[in-house]
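Structure representation.

___
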Amino acid sequence: MPPKSKERRPARQQTPREPKETTEKVVFINRCAKVVKGGRRFSFSALIVSGDQKGKVGIGFGKANEVSEAIRKATDASKKRMVKIAVLNTTIPHQVTGTHGGGRVLLRPASPGTGVIAGGGVRAVLEAVGIRDILAKSLGSSNHANVVHATLDALTQLRPKEEVFRLRGKTIRTKTAVTPEATEPVAA
């Protein structure tokens, strides 16, 4: 047997999987009962929304026999499925409607200082993205999973003005200020 060397192997590079500053919100925890010979056996499912509050958000769904394990699975799934959202300052660029299953969600931009006018799962998604001024209305199903997925569908449809102009082959004109010297007085 060769003598063991005292040299240590170089430490493995630690690659961060997700940013540390993500926030997770539990939208819904469901308890499911299965009737077996000895009584009832319970299992749990958790719906989690995670985001970095800078325009990225993900949705995760996890199932397990314990609540904490279901939440952990859902959190891992939501961090894997993060998507980038087009945000305009603290609101969204334009009105949009998203659908998923029976859920329909309407999102409208709002002026600064309005706040997040939304309920339940829609609010969780919008706060995780980092949107602070928006009006929202859930129009279809009240199922938490469908509402959350419909909200994400609506957010992924958003496009900034610059991208729309570029796709149409247009250029954005900048407003030029009119100086008093440039305008000639009209003779009376």
In short: The helical segments are 67-80, 120-129, 144-156, 161-168. The chain has a mean pLDDT of 87.
